[in-house]
Automatic annotation (TrEMBL):
A GO MF label: small GTPase binding
Source taxonomy: Eukaryota, Viridiplantae, Streptophyta, Embryophyta, Tracheophyta
GO process annotations (BP): nucleocytoplasmic transport
InterPro entries from the UniProt entry: Leu-rich_rpt, LRR_dom_sf, RanGap
Keywords, sorted A to Z: GTPase activation, Leucine-rich repeat, Repeat
Short name of one Pfam family: LRR_6
Highest taxon of the lineage: Eukaryota
GO cellular component: cytosol; nucleus; perinuclear region of cytoplasm
SUPFAM superfamilies assigned: RNI-like (SSF52047)
Annotated protein name in UniProt: Uncharacterized protein
Amino acid sequence: MELTPQDLHLHGDSIGDEGVCSLMSGLSSHKGKIAFLDSGNNSISAKGAFYVAEYIKKSKNLLWLNLYMNDLGGEGAERIADALKANHIITTIDLGGNNIRAKGVPEIAQALKDNTVISTMEQKLCLKFSSFTEM
């Protein structure tokens, strides 16, 4: 019997956008079933969020995703929100500390409205409420 990991913890490894591209490519072809992915504090920007979003759209097993303290910004948040609309497996996601401003907030809100499977979303240090005046 072959055991495969279900949890992958890469928090604080500074893998960046190129690293997350390689990681998502590897996970997409991985025969195991990753249920918990911690990619927090890894210098992932909106560019890297594209790769994460593509993986989210295809994943049939991912339940918990931590993207805390990266630099997704509004554009990255939009990409993740779009992916969450297509994924009805993820129950918990952490987008805190990603410098999400007025751009990205409406898309995240709509994704939460459309996707009733998500039961927990962390967003501490995420939203800059003073930016809502820009909307």
